[in-house]
Design a protein that fits this description.
655 residues, alpha/beta, 8-stranded parallel beta barrel, 26 helices, globular
């Protein structure tokens, strides 16, 4: 494909590259002009590809920081290039979001009910091919498009997911391929399935785990159309011999044929069991009919999981290939990760009642200190990404982590010193002027900063992240430190530097900070090297704060965003706990934890027993963490057994 008569160059700023949603926005834009538009990835040499085809754009696999040459020819070539430049400057319409895991934060984390199997397949056994395959396909695609239009319009914050599904549905390259296959004598369902299976496999072969999980979206679009092709009323399609198939029994999503999952229909309240959860299913389930969702796959970054949790539907992921009988009562406890195919129903229902009461009592008691039965008081603080986090939280003793890269992450230009001071003071006021811990810009890996583009790195999690970025480019950090010093003159402030590995980095950060009047200073302990030599790093510090998310993935060599290895990245792995113990014993200063482990009430007790004195949790978990600590006698916690445990599962059993 030729690259076009005119061209511009743009940079991809999106955290996961030009994935399905931003790609859909680009495709929708260019298809509105009288022009032929192409994309070439200058960093990989791939392309040019048709910018009007979602499958071509998304599987180009342009990553964050990649330079794209946008070529155009035709009557509106100049206009479309200007529009693409504007879209790219707006991060292709993608807000920068860093998601925090909120275990149990949006509702209950335990559920029971009859199993509804939704990993069954669309029944195409009654489909009889005829001489009208293309019209039948067009009708099915049209109906599916109407459904996705409605989902997009009602989707709120998740509307972009269904916009991407629409772009996949209407992809002209894919439709041309399907029609060509039909012209060769293949039936519409088989042609459609083959084409979309190939596209899903292409996504799964990409390097980025987030992009790999977009194969779920492809299969969702595939199955939506197959379901309409399988319907007897589809454009005069003949019914199967002997008449239409009987409706699926209650508690069953449909018979298993051809490997294409049928959409789930819950006639009675139950637990939906799925191989993977697509966004359309998660968005359209009747929450009054869903006791919970059990996902066989271990990934937690799929769109369906994100949507379900945002709706407050109890969910457990990673149940694997356990055999489940349709209609049989099953239960799960996401807090422990247990999925039970033969539960003690009375016990589970008692647990649900206990959890409801626990939450209500915890919220009522949230303002009280978290003093354990053996007399130790643990400060429980809140992680803040936006000011509203500080407004909404109940009972926090301050903020143990202000994520500045999230606070200002939706901006295209760097915030001024005054703007940063205003935001920091707003957080402090919302927390009653209790101490706030401001983490300096933490970018890199899966966290981009639009106004500080970074070069592409083959392994960004092991590249320039956090403080490392600013050794070569200190100006933005200096402005932030000025804002932090000004804020500290008005309210209690701690500052901490992320991704520190060496004593030289600590010395450099302290030099850049300058006078420490009214400031406590600390670092994040996120890499094993920092944990092992914490005594050296902390000599001139007031505290250290352990980031268990990164410490876990670096210790276990398991990318926490990769579904294939996600089970390995467990913060309760004894190796991680041993490093935390090493930090507590040798830091010589106050030790906090601000990673996800601090949001788990059971883990919080173990952390406190190990000697951690501050825990910073996501807002909804703060009351529950405080309540659990008040119930605990830390002197009775067998920390030695936890440190010597075989694996994380054994640690959980001890807790």
């Amino acid at each position: 494909m030729v690259a076009g008569d005119q061209s511009v160059e743009v940079v991809v700023g999106n955290a996961h590259g030009l994935h399905a949603r931003p790609a859909a926005r680009l495709v929708g834009l260019v298809n509105g002009f009288e022009a032929v538009v192409t994309l070439t990835d200058l960093d990989t040499g791939k392309g040019p590809v048709d910018a009007g085809s979602l499958s071509m754009v998304a599987t180009l696999n342009a990553q964050q920081g990649h330079r794209l040459r946008v070529g155009a020819s035709g009557a509106q070539a100049a206009e479309v290039l200007a529009a693409v430049e504007e879209l790219a400057a707006d991060n292709f319409g993608d807000a920068v979001v860093v998601a925090a895991s909120r275990p149990g934060g949006s509702g209950l984390d335990v559920a029971i009910g009859p199993a509804v199997l939704a990993d069954a397949a669309v029944d195409l056994s009654g489909y009889v091919a005829g001489d009208n395959e293309v019209p039948r396909l067009d009708e099915a695609v049209g109906v599916a498009g109407d459904e996705l239009d409605a989902l997009r319009d009602a989707g709120g914050e998740h509307g972009g997911i269904f916009e991407a599904h629409l772009a996949m549905l209407d992809d002209r390259k894919l439709l041309e391929e399907v029609r060509a296959t039909i012209a060769g004598g293949t039936s519409a369902p088989v042609a459609w399935k083959q084409t979309y299976d190939t596209l899903a496999a292409t996504f799964e072969a990409l390097d980025d785990p987030y992009q790999q999980e977009r194969a779920q979206d492809v299969r969702s679009v595939r199955d939506r159309v197959l379901q309409h092709l399988a319907a007897p009323a589809s454009a005069g399609a003949p019914a199967a011999e002997g008449g239409p198939a009987e409706p699926a029994p209650s508690g069953r999503a449909g018979p298993s044929v051809d490997g294409a999952a049928a959409p789930a229909q819950l006639d009675t309240p139950g637990i939906l069991v799925v191989g993977e959860l697509d966004a359309a299913t998660a968005a359209t389930l009747d929450a009054t009919q869903v006791a919970g969702i059990a996902v066989r796959a271990a990934g937690t970054t799929g769109h369906g999981v994100i949507v379900a949790r945002s709706r407050g539907i109890p969910l457990v992921a990673g149940i694997g290939d356990v055999a489940v009988r349709a209609g049989a009562v099953v239960a799960f406890d996401a807090r422990s990760g247990v999925f039970d195919t033969a539960p003690d129903e009375d016990r589970v229902r008692a647990t649900i009642a206990d959890r409801l009461g626990e939450r209500e009592r915890a919220i009522a008691d949230a303002p009280a200190p978290a003093t354990t039965r053996d007399g130790r008081t643990i400060d429980v603080l809140v992680n803040v990404g936006v000011v509203q986090d500080a407004v909404d939280v109940r009972g926090a003793d301050g903020s143990g982590l202000v994520r500045t890269e999230v606070l200002f992450g939706n901006r295209r230009t760097a915030p001024t010193v005054d703007e940063q001071v205003e935001a920091f003071l707003a957080i402090a006021r919302a927390l009653g002027n209790k101490p706030i811990t401001i983490r300096t810009w933490d970018i890199g890996g899966d966290k981009p900063l639009p106004f500080l583009p970074q070069e592409h790195e083959p392994n960004p999690f092991l590249g320039e992240r956090g403080l490392r970025v600013f050794r070569r480019r200190p100006e933005l950090l200096r402005d932030q430190l000025a804002a932090i010093r000004r804020t500290a003159a008005e309210t209690p402030v701690h500052v901490m530097f992320p991704m520190v590995t060496t004593a030289d980095e600590v010395d450099w950060a302290l030099h850049e900070l300058g006078p420490r009047d009214n400031l406590e200073v600390g670092i994040m302990v996120e890499v094993p090297a920092a944990a092992l030599r914490v005594a050296t790093l902390a000599k001139e510090l007031d505290f250290v704060s352990i980031g268990t998310n990164d410490l876990t993935q670096y210790t276990t060599a398991a990318d926490r965003t990769n579904a294939a290895v996600a089970p390995l990245a467990d913060g309760l792995d004894p190796a991680v706990l041993q490093l935390i113990d090493q930090v507590v014993r040798n830091a010589g200063v106050r030790v906090a934890v601000c990673g996800d482990l601090a949001s788990d009430p059971q883990a919080a007790v173990l952390l406190a027993a190990l000697g951690v004195t501050e825990l910073s949790a996501v807002g909804p978990q703060v009351p529950l963490v405080k309540a659990r600590l008040r119930q605990a006698d830390l002197s009775q916690v067998d920390t030695a057994a936890a440190l010597a445990a075989r694996d994380a599962a054994q640690v959980r059993a001890l807790l």
